[in-house]
């Protein structure tokens, strides 16, 4: 089993305030096991402002998913700081991380991660239930509205296994939007989809950014990376390149 090694010497220092929506400062993530040690991130810094659509690209093992995980509070940096919407995530106690994440960040995974025993609408309602947001009736109404927004409302009362991969990913996006978080983190959201469905999901992302959401997306797709605000390249746990794109809206394009 891999065990995270955590350095606490800087953990209790009060971080400097940040003007950025997401501010990762010299993040290091080191793993140790009885067999070997591995450093996934080597002093990575990344700033993202509201309304940006940022792609993180790199080969497998470059640290992309680890970077998203520390921003989401799913994992903690060994050293360095992670400040999201003014909150020092690396300093949050365990009992506060999940409620904070539920209200601040929507996470979208490559393999959807829908609960198979819950219907589609119940999966979308789950984050609202967990964070005690809205009344039970409002949760159901909001979930149905979100499913309509991503064009799968007709499947609201089906189980996830009855849907195609593209439909399941749309449900996952609706679930990520349930609590109206300002930030979406997407880890290879199109990696398990055919090219036509992947393009449709990407168009949905651009619509969300145009509506004011901020998205960080891990991807292997160089073509998609050229269509976002910025593309950050990672290699062996370090930022090696950054490209600023003139992103055009895909809304209504052929």
Describe this structure in words.
Helix 3 crosses helix 4 and helix 3 packs parallel to helix 5. The protein starts with a strand and ends in a 10-residue tail after the last strand. The N terminus and C terminus are likely disordered. The protein has a single domain, classed as Rossmann fold (3-Layer(aba) Sandwich), CATH 3.40.50. Helix content is about 30%, strand content about 25%. The chain is globular, with a radius of gyration of 18 Å. The chain is built from seven helices and eleven strands. The strands form two sheets. A six-stranded mixed beta sheet has the order 7-8-9-4-10-11, with helices on both faces. Strands 1, 2, 3, 5 and 6 form a five-stranded antiparallel beta sheet that branches. The chain is an alpha/beta fold and about 250 residues long.
Total strand count, please?
Answer: 11
Count of the domains: 1
Mean pLDDT: 88
Major sheet size, sense and barrel closure: 6 strands, mixed
Distance between the termini: 48 Å
Strand content: 25-35%
CATH architecture: 3-Layer(aba) Sandwich
CATH topology: Rossmann fold
Strand order of the largest sheet: 7-8-9-4-10-11
Q: What is the global morphology? A: globular
Q: Could you give the order of the helices and strands?
A: EEEEHEEHEHHHEHEHEE
Question: Poorly predicted ranges (pLDDT <50, ≥5 residues)?
Answer: 1-12, 248-254
Q: What's the helix count?
A: 7
What is the fourth-level CATH superfamily? P-loop containing nucleotide triphosphate hydrolases
Share in helix: 25-40%
**Name of the level-1 CATH class:** Alpha Beta
């Amino acid at each position: 089993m891999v065990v995270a090694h955590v350095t606490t010497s800087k953990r209790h220092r009060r971080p400097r305030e940040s003007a950025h929506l997401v501010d990762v400062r010299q993040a290091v993530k080191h793993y140790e096991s009885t067999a070997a040690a591995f450093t996934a991130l080597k002093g990575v810094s990344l700033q993202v402002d509201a309304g940006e659509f940022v792609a993180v690209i790199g080969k497998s093992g470059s640290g992309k998913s680890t970077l998203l995980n520390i921003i989401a509070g799913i994992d903690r940096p060994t050293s360095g700081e992670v400040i999201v919407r003014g909150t020092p995530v690396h300093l949050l106690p365990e009992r506060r991380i999940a409620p904070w994440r539920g209200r601040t960040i929507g996470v979208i995974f490559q393999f959807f991660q829908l609960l198979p025993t819950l219907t589609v609408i119940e999966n979308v309602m789950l984050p609202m239930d967990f964070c005690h947001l809205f009344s039970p009736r409002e949760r159901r109404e909001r979930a149905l509205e979100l499913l309509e927004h991503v064009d799968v409302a007709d499947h609201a009362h089906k189980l996830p296994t009855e849907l195609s991969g593209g439909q399941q990913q749309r449900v996952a996006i609706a679930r990520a939007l349930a609590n109206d978080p300002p930030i979406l983190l997407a880890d290879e959201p199109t990696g398990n989809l055919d090219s036509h469905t992947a393009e449709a999901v990407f168009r949905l992302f651009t619509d969300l950014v145009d509506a004011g959401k901020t998205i960080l997306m891990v991807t292997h797709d160089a073509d998609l990376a050229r269509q976002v605000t910025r593309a950050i390249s990672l290699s062996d746990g370090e930022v090696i390149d950054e490209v600023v794109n003139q992103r055009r809206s895909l809304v209504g394009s052929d």
